[in-house]
Specification:
The structure holds two protein chains of two kinds. By secondary structure, chain A is α/β, with parallel strands linked by helices. Chain A is built from ten helices and twelve strands. Chain A folds into two domains: about 180 residues, Rossmann fold (3-Layer(aba) Sandwich), CATH 3.40.50; about 70 residues, no CATH class. In chain A, the strands form three sheets. A six-stranded mixed β-sheet of chain A has the order 8-9-10-5-11-12, with helices on both faces. In chain A, strands 4-3-6-7 form a four-stranded antiparallel β-sheet, with helices on one face. In chain A, strands 1-2 form a two-stranded antiparallel sheet. Chain B is mostly helical. Chain B folds into two domains: about 35 residues, no CATH class; about 220 residues, no CATH class. Helix content of chain B is about 75%, strand content about 0%. Chain B is built from 15 helices and four strands. Chain B has a two-stranded antiparallel sheet. Chain B has a two-stranded antiparallel sheet with strand order 2-3. In chain B, helix 3 crosses helix 12, helix 4 packs across helix 10 and helix 7 packs antiparallel against helix 10. Chain B is globular and about 70 Å long. The chains are: A alpha/beta, B mainly alpha. At the A-B interface, helix 2, helix 3, helix 4 and helix 5 of A face helix 7, helix 8, helix 9 and helix 10 of B.
């Protein structure tokens, strides 16, 4: 294992900082089913952290715990050095955690621009009377945020569909718009739930490039769930491996690849 | 073709996000405003005001209000009639308690009171959705009508149980009561409609409108993105009820003059306004206008053609009206859920490319 007390330097020379988010002994149950069992891991500033595991391992539940949608029965979530009290999902979002969803969860009736603008809610400070009047404060705020949003739209190369209603877009573009919406929040921690599910090789390459660029240009910390092992091993700095709600591996891609328990979980093991 | 956006370049985000981005639309909007404010008041007479213009203006306000709640925020409400009654009775109490205060203030305050009541009845929306919420607002409808019928304080202990609008003026011009001139009542309602429509447009294109639509389209995702569902739903109820309350106050004070609550603000009123926004277009300000115009015009038009032109009996024409409205609602729900507004939008899109659609 790496010495992780003060951050580390990745193979390609990026400096990874201190701990942004730490999960301590998380246990999550749904009735009698134990979805997550006593899992601890941390996410460090500037790194790309992958969570992998076979179907039903509890990866998405883990992401839902981080984004505040599920409240674990046991364990603590530490964010930026402080224990996070129990809060509603929208409060977690306001703290600077943005996410995308496994099954796209865009607002279908709104245009791409409006969807991405919704991501900037935490920057909107005008009250309802100022917005009703529009001229002045509300208009200035709208323009200011529009500029920020346009930068993200440029970055993700979706200028041409800016005004298109989301319901008219193909799947791959929807995934990209969802990433744009999450990025618009300028998150401290970006959670991606299977960003490449259902994509062809070319779209996967595009998406991988965007993820690396986001990490590189904005310095965003990213935690992602992905099934495509090639993508995970290429992109991520450190990998958590889960199986049946337990953590069975944690480390750099190379360490994880050679971990016997991980190999057993993925390939199966003979019981003779 | 003069309706085109070629050559109409935007160089700022403000220009790009304005209400009518296409020049021709913008000019048409100014022309409509100029005609409505500058020409119609000189031509108007009592018949046109009472049969067409006043009901259209007032229903349009109510439709905008309901559209914010149902069309933009996705919270189905069947309590519109009840909330209009709140506006009417609030206005009546204010008019009789403070006879010297301008009607403008009364109507706005009546809207404010309705907004508070709306928030109160909107509280269940935090726990329940869709069909069940519709039933909860239905309870509001029946409770409010019952309240105004049974508590004599609301109708100032009058023997008939009715409320009658006393004569009140704005800047010295009488606008309520039987002596009010048609042009004055028309202008009074028109001012309210114009301001309400502009406010509704400003709210729906900005931050708050986006939170409403986010809740409508996918409430769980909206919350994870950072939308406070409590705030979004309750502001929608408040703004919606504010408009509906204003329309109720105008309906009573300016249009009818005398109101018996069960008759005027019953469940039929709730459905009528709901039909307006379904036919006009959910989630569209223009749709609210179109729906209100359609449902106000239809009976008048049918009467003109059926009774006056063809000589049919009045009751048959009245029933025909119901048949047509019912058929249209089913048709719109199946064929074009976004109503007249969507037909208009498609027509404009086609027009923009005409005559070279490829």
């Amino acid at each position: 294992m790496l010495d992780q007390s003060e951050g580390y330097v990745t193979e390609d020379g990026r400096k990874i900082g201190g701990v942004v988010m730490e999960m301590k002994n998380i246990t999550l149950r749904f009735g009698g089913v134990v979805a997550i069992k006593d899992i601890s891991f941390d996410i460090r500033e500037g790194e790309i952290r992958a969570i992998i595991g076979p179907n039903g391992a509890g990866k998405s539940s883990m992401l839902n715990v981080i984004s505040g949608f599920y409240v674990p029965q046991e364990g603590e979530v530490w964010f930026h050095g402080a224990k996070r009290p129990q809060m509603r999902p929208f409060e977690v979002a306001q703290q600077g955690i943005a996410r995308t969803f496994q099954n796209i969860a865009l607002f279908e009736g709104m245009s791409v621009l409006d969807n991405v603008m919704t991501g900037r809610l935490s920057f909107m400070k005008t009250n309802i009377l100022q917005q009703a009047w529009w001229k002045g404060k509300a208009e200035a705020e709208e323009t200011e945020n529009r500029e920020a949003v346009e930068k993200i739209i440029d970055f993700l190369e979706i200028q041409h569909i800016r005004k298109t209603p989301v319901s008219r877009l193909p799947y791959g573009l929807k995934k990209r718009v969802e990433l744009a919406r999450a990025l618009a929040a300028e998150p401290k921690l970006l959670l991606l739930d299977e960003p490449m599910a259902g994509m062809n090789v070319e779209e996967k390459e595009d998406m991988s490039r965007f993820i690396l660029d986001v990490n590189d240009e904005f310095g965003t910390t990213i935690a992602l769930i992905e099934h495509d092992m090639g993508v995970v091993m290429d992109l991520s700095d450190r990998v958590v491996v889960m199986d049946y709600g337990r953590k069975i591996g944690d480390g750099t891609p190379d360490e994880v690849r050679n971990n016997q328990e991980v190999i057993d979980a993925y390939l199966g093991v003979s019981h003779d | 073709m003069f309706y085109r956006e070629a050559g109409d370049f935007k160089t700022s985000y403000i220009a790009d996000s304005q209400t009518f981005p296409i020049k021709f639309d913008r000019y048409r909007y100014y022309v409509v405003l100029a005609v409505a404010f500058g020409i119609v008041p000189f031509l108007i007479n009592d018949y046109w005001a009472n049969a067409l213009l006043l009901p259209f203006l007032i229903y349009a306000i109510a439709a905008i209000g309901l559209n914010i709640l149902v069309g933009y925020c996705g919270q189905v409400s069947l309590g519109t009639g009840g909330f209009m009654a709140v506006g009417a009775y609030a206005c009546y109490k204010l008019m009789t308690a403070f006879p010297d205060v301008s009607m403008f203030i009364h109507v706005i305050l009546a809207g404010g009171i309705t907004a508070l009541v709306g928030v109160l009845f909107g509280l269940p929306s935090l726990r329940i959705k869709g069909f069940y919420l519709a039933v909860a607002t239905l309870a509001a409808q029946f409770f409010l009508v019952w309240l105004f019928n049974r508590v004599p304080w609301f109708y100032n202990y009058s023997a008939s149980g009715q409320i009658n609008a006393p004569e009140r003026d704005v800047f010295g011009i009488i606008i309520t009561g039987p002596n009010a001139p048609a042009w004055a009542t028309y202008l009074f309602c028109l001012v309210f409609l114009t301001v309400c429509a502009i406010i509704a447009r400003n709210l729906t294109r900005g931050t708050i409108g986006r939170t409403w639509m986010a809740i409508r389209d996918m409430d769980i995702a909206a919350e994870i993105i950072g939308v406070n569902p409590l705030k979004a739903k309750l502001t929608a109820f408040a703004v919606s009820s504010f408009f509906v309350g204003i329309s109720g106050a105008l309906f009573f004070a300016v249009y009818l003059g005398a109101v018996e609550v069960g008759e005027v603000f019953g469940i039929q009123k709730s459905f009528l306004v709901l039909f307006m926004i379904i036919i006009g277009g959910l989630g569209s300000i223009f749709g609210s206008f179109a729906g209100a115009a359609f449902l106000v015009l239809l009976p008048v038009l049918l009467k003109l053609i059926g009774v006056d032109l063809l000589g049919w009996p009045t009751d048959i024409v009245a029933h025909l009206n119901l048949v047509i409205v019912g058929a249209m609602i089913i048709m719109f729900l199946i064929l074009e859920p976004h109503g007249l507004a969507q037909l208009w939008r498609v027509a404009k899109e086609k027009l923009r490319l005409w005559p070279f659609p490829h």
